[in-house]
Amino acid sequence: MKQEGLFDYNTINIFDIGWRGSIQYSIQKMTGKKVIGYYLGTFESTYPEIMSTSFGYLIDLGVHWYDKTWIEKDHMLFEFLFSSSEGSLLGFQEQPDGTAIPIEEEDFVNTNSDKVRTFQMSALEIVNEYIKYSRYLGNVNKYDASYSFLDFMNSKRYEDRVVFSADVFIDIGFENKKYRYVTNIRIYS
């Protein structure tokens, strides 16, 4: 943290997918600094110590702008779409010059990084198009910003969901288990 200049600031701002605020809570405990967290969503289970400094976009401390069950039910897809194309951080390796470099979990990189990069680059293309025409379109509200994904989640099209069911989310930090992004695929005849 010192190498990256984290202690050079009185307040640290982080951006994360969200849910409970574990990264914000941990950084605050380790540094003793004020940490403000900005998230896609935060649930009621957010650490009490950071509730006043964590802000969710789609869900804020369990308060939602729309039916939050679609996020809770398939939140692993959000994990996938907003994950880094690098693997989970396992630790650091000290170099001869005293600097530290990250050691990353490799299964994720091999399994998912190309798909993550494709989704994220496509999302950035949409954002760039919006920026070009933003003066004509005005501000985007939460519903507009997430409608297509909401429609995708609610429509439960078999051909879409089967693509994600084959991919695996690897949770190194807490349980060291693998999970499927979409666990519910039902075939009706």
Topology at a glance:
Blueprint: E1 11-19, H1 22-31, E2 34-42, E3 54-60, E4 63-64, H2 69-73, H3 75-81, E5 89-94, E6 100-104, H4 106-137, H5 142-155, H6 158-165, E7 168-171, E8 177-180
Parallel strand pairs: 1-2, 2-3
Antiparallel strand pairs: 3-4, 5-6, 7-8
Counting helices, strands and paired strands, the structural category is alpha/beta
Catalogue the unreliable spans: 185-189
Global geometry: globular
Q: How would a crystallographer describe the biggest sheet?
A: 4 strands, mixed
The percentage helix is 40-55%
Major sheet: arrangement of strands: 1-2-3-4
What amount of the residues lies in strands?
A: 15-25%
Task: Estimate the mean pLDDT confidence.
Answer: 78
* SS element count, helices: 6
Count of distinct strands: 8
Structure description:
This protein has 189 residues and is of the alpha/beta class. It folds into two domains: 1-64, no CATH class; 67-189, no CATH class. It is built from six helices and eight strands. The chain has a four-stranded mixed sheet. The protein has a two-stranded antiparallel ribbon with strand order 5-6. The chain has a two-stranded antiparallel sheet with strand order 7-8.
